[in-house]
Design a protein that fits this description.
With 139 residues, the chain is α/β, with parallel strands linked by helices. It has helices spanning 15-31, 86-99, 116-128, and strands at 59-64, 70-73, 79-81, 105-110, 134-138. Strands 3-2-1-4-5 form a five-stranded mixed sheet, with helices on one face. It is elongated and about 115 Å long. It starts with 14 loop residues before the first helix and ends with a strand.
Length: 139
């Protein structure tokens, strides 16, 4: 009887497969864009060696406590307000302080137990009141 010739199975050379994989990986790393979160933008003043004290007359305190209550006002005269009222109250205080010849500085103080979304909401309210001088503190 006649035998069928046995075919040899060809080998697959995988040595160049690693090279192709790394080339594709490098291509996609180079061509993709990575988005980065911008965060909250604050314009910081330039560094000054000669510092002078802050005038306490123009400072308005905004305090966010553990119960997420907002206390707003000048030192010793803080009142509980809602977050939505912060912008209108700050505009009124800004007009009052500007009438005395000073400029307003808002000092934000938060506690560890306050919610971050409320902190951001207060900053948004201050920005909507067109106030640029903001001091951040942690109580």
């Amino acid at each position: 009887m006649l035998r069928k010739p046995v075919r040899k199975v060809g080998d697959f050379n995988a040595a160049s497969m690693a090279d192709v994989t790394f080339l594709l990986l490098i291509f996609f790393i180079v061509t993709t864009t990575i988005s980065s979160d911008k965060g909250i933008k604050f314009v910081l003043p330039p560094k000054v060696d000669n510092t002078e004290g802050v005038k306490v007359k123009g400072v308005v305190n905004v305090f966010l406590n553990d119960d997420n209550e907002v206390l707003l006002g000048k030192k010793g005269k803080e009142e509980v307000v809602s977050i939505e009222q912060v912008s209108s109250r700050l505009r009124a205080l800004d007009r009052e302080i500007a009438a005395n010849g000073d400029s307003i500085i808002v000092s934000i103080k938060v506690t560890d137990g306050s919610l971050y979304k409320n902190y951001l909401a207060i900053i948004d309210q201050i920005k909507s009141a067109k106030i640029d001088r903001i001091s951040l503190a942690q109580e």
